C-alpha cells in the first residue's frame, strides 16, 4: 500500500483506488474517501476523469457468483437490460479502510454489503472498544474485614 504523509507525520493518506490514479485520497469530514477529489467529482458526473484514469467501480455487485456464501438477490442482467442503476458500495475485505489495494476492495450492492456485514459481525456496537475491555472476573473487589468487637 502506498501512503502519503502530506499533512503530518502521523496522518496516513492512502492512494486513490481508481486504476492509474496516483493522487492521495480526499477527506470527507468524517473519514478518508477511497478516491481522490478529482475522481470523486468525476464519479458524481461533475467532471471527466483525469486522462488515463479508469474507475474501479463497474456499477454491479461482485457477489454475482456467490463467493460470499450467499447469492446476490439482484438480477443484474435485467438491471442492465432495463438501463436502471442500483447503488453499489466499496467494501474493504480486511475491514481496514486505509488499505485501498484492488485485491482488498470489492464492489457490492447495498443488500449484499448489509448481509455480509451482518454475517461477519461488522454491525456489532462498540466492536472496537470490546478488544480493550478487561475480561470478566479480572476486577478486584475490595475485601471488607470486620474486626472483632465491632458490630
Description of the molecule:
The chain is an alpha+beta fold. The protein folds into two domains: 1-56, no CATH class; 57-122, no CATH class. It has three helices and four strands; from the N terminus they run ββααββα. The longest helix has 11 residues, at 110-120. Strand 1 and strand 2 (13-14) form a beta hairpin. Helix content is 17%, strand content 9%. It has helices at residues 37-43, 76-82, 110-120, and strands spanning 3-4, 13-14, 88-92, 105-109. The strands form two sheets. It has a two-stranded antiparallel sheet with strand order 1-2.
What number is the mean pLDDT?
78
H/I helix tally: 3
List the secondary-structure elements in sequence, H or E: EEHHEEH
Strands across the major sheet, in which order?
A: 1-2
Strand segment count = 4
- What Rg is obtained from the alpha carbons, in whole angstroms? 23 Å
- Give the helix proportion (percent range): 10-25%
Number of domains: 2
Structural category is: alpha+beta
Low-confidence stretches: 1-9, 138-142
Summarize the structure.
By secondary structure, this protein is of the alpha+beta class.
What key phrases describe this protein's structure?
151 residues; alpha+beta; 2 domains; two-stranded antiparallel ribbon; 3 helices; 4 strands; 9% strand; globular
Write the layout of secondary structure elements.
Blueprint: E1 3-4, E2 13-14, H1 37-43, H2 76-82, E3 88-92, E4 105-109, H3 110-120
Antiparallel strand pairs: 1-2, 3-4
